[in-house]
Amino acid sequence: MLPDTWLFGLLILVLGTFFVFLVLLARILRRQPKRLATPPPEVAPPVADDKAGRAPTLKPTAPPAYLHGLSGRYQGHTITLTPAGLTLGRSSDNQFVLTDEPLVSRHHAEIHWEDDAWLLNDRESANGTWVDGQRIGRHALLPGQHVQVGATEWLFSDQALLVAPSLPPTAIEPPHDSPHPLAHITGAVQFGPYWLEQQIGQGGMSRVFKAHAADGRTVAIKILQTADPYLVQKFEAEGKEIGPRLRNHPHIVTVHEFNRSADGQLYLVMDFVNGVSLRQRLNQGAVPEVEIVRVMTQVCDALGFAHAVDIVHRDVKPENILIEPDGTVKVVDFGIARLTSAVAVTQNKLVGTPEYMSPEQAKGEPVQAASDVYSLGIVLYELLTGRVPFPLPPNSHDWRSAMTVIDQHLRATPVPPSQRVATISADLERVALKALEKHWQQRFPDGHRMGQVLLVLKGTARSRPGPTPSPPPVTIARLTALGGPAAGRQWQISDSLTLGRQDFNPEDTQVSRAHAQIRVRPDGVWLEDTSTNGTWVNQTHIRRSQVALHAGDLITIGENVLRVDF
């Protein structure tokens, strides 16, 4: 037994000694300095300045900057800018993706720090990037300026918190809000080698004057109002390229000169048309079908010629179609519509004409010949019925109303013209509705093909006016609940009616207490949404805006579906 005890004790002694050795070794290793796997890079000494006595210059860092959403889908959202830059657009490869945002292109704009400034660059967007109401191409932002991208208005700021929205500064004034030095000319005023006689037109970004050249010719001069050097350069380049390709066509106003005045104003000189615009003709009363076909075939001929040389007008509307006393039609504004036809909406202002825009432009996508065809379809629809398919509410220029019209271009089906005016030719109705197809591949491919179809109808068009006799004004409207808790109930409206939660289901919190108001007015029946969650009209979402109602329209409020009857 003793030898076994002795061996056991010896084993315990050996193990204890080994444990003490490990503890001491660990303490020694812990005291040694740590060695890096790779040596740190040598830091180069600062380069001395070439002038003795001066400290080396350091590249300035970007100061804090933010975009605060003031209106639109991103109201209340703040973007923090970094020196690396920020790209905005609908495509998922942007750093900030503007999802489900009409008017925004896939790659719309970019902001980055360069040359001691935050630079905002437009990336060839369809509807433009705007600063304080003026379209820009490349712009150094200042704190307090308002940036417009699609339907969202942002405030550029050096403060992380937005205390209170400010009014747009005067660093860049909207051209249509600024008094033009030639706005009130009396007598002839010299403008370069021309003499301006009188103003004959005005748009959001331009003014048109009747003028005389030194050789006695009567011309029209359009003076554009843009201070952005990038846009000026682009305009001049496009003018030199597009102008010569469209000369001498019988239905296109010839542009003779693209130039810049001594004081930097951008202008173009074109033929003077002694006639009226199609808008003025529409205001004179109903247009007979034979005249409609005669006008539209000439417009299609002009656009077909441009489409054949890969030029898209982008802004086809009655204001850009001129009619001479002998009935000859001239289309104007080719070559500059890229600058002037964009649509932008802010909380208190509307730029452009959303009633005539194609779904492609509404989505910020590239336009093509079929985009002009869509606008032609709207013009034809207006000639046939006396109104556009998706009108803005009267005297309404807020961004919500504009976005309602834009959304209708994307989703709503236009009411067939014959439901507005029963005497309309079925053939002309088919042409208009084909041109108004939502997908460009389902329309006429270009103006030439649409014009060919209209030429076939030229001999069968009737001489009586299309939109007359005008339907009598609506004096009483009726709503019938087709589904939901109020199914079977009817409301009769002779003046106005407010619908709310108590009219349907007092327990339904999705319906506001004062959800929508319907008014009978001299110009028709209108619905105004006043709710929190919005109202649906023919599957189009209406929120805090107005929309015209027509017989057969379906209104959805919460779980309730209502039909409109006159």
Features:
12 helices, Tumour Suppressor Smad4, Transferase(Phosphotransferase), domain 1, 6-stranded antiparallel β-sheet, 32 strands, extended, 566 residues, Phosphorylase Kinase, domain 1, alpha+beta, 4 domains
General description of the model:
The chain has 566 residues and is α+β, with helices and mostly antiparallel strands. The chain folds into four domains: 66-157, Tumour Suppressor Smad4 (Sandwich); 189-271, 2-Layer Sandwich (Phosphorylase Kinase, domain 1), CATH 3.30.200.20; 276-457, Transferase(Phosphotransferase) domain 1 (Transferase(Phosphotransferase), domain 1, Orthogonal Bundle); 477-565, Tumour Suppressor Smad4. 25% of the residues lie in helices and 25% in strands. It contains twelve helices and 32 strands.
What's the structural blueprint in terms of helices and strands?
Blueprint: H1 2-31, E1 66-71, E2 78-80, E3 86-89, E4 96-97, E5 109-114, E6 117-122, E7 129-131, E8 134-136, E9 138-140, E10 146-149, E11 152-157, E12 189-191, E13 194-202, E14 206-212, E15 218-224, H2 229-245, E16 255-260, E17 266-271, E18 276-277, H3 278-283, H4 289-308, E19 321-323, E20 329-331, H5 337-340, E21 344-345, E22 350-351, H6 359-362, H7 369-385, H8 399-411, H9 417-420, H10 426-435, H11 447-457, E23 477-483, E24 490-493, E25 496-499, H12 501-504, E26 516-521, E27 524-529, E28 535-537, E29 540-542, E30 546-549, E31 554-557, E32 560-565
Parallel strand pairs: 3-4
Antiparallel strand pairs: 1-2, 1-11, 3-5, 5-6, 6-9, 7-8, 7-10, 10-11, 12-13, 13-14, 14-15, 15-17, 16-17, 18-19, 19-20, 21-22, 23-24, 23-32, 25-26, 26-27, 27-30, 28-29, 28-31, 31-32
Helix pairs in contact: 4-7, 4-11, 7-10, 10-11
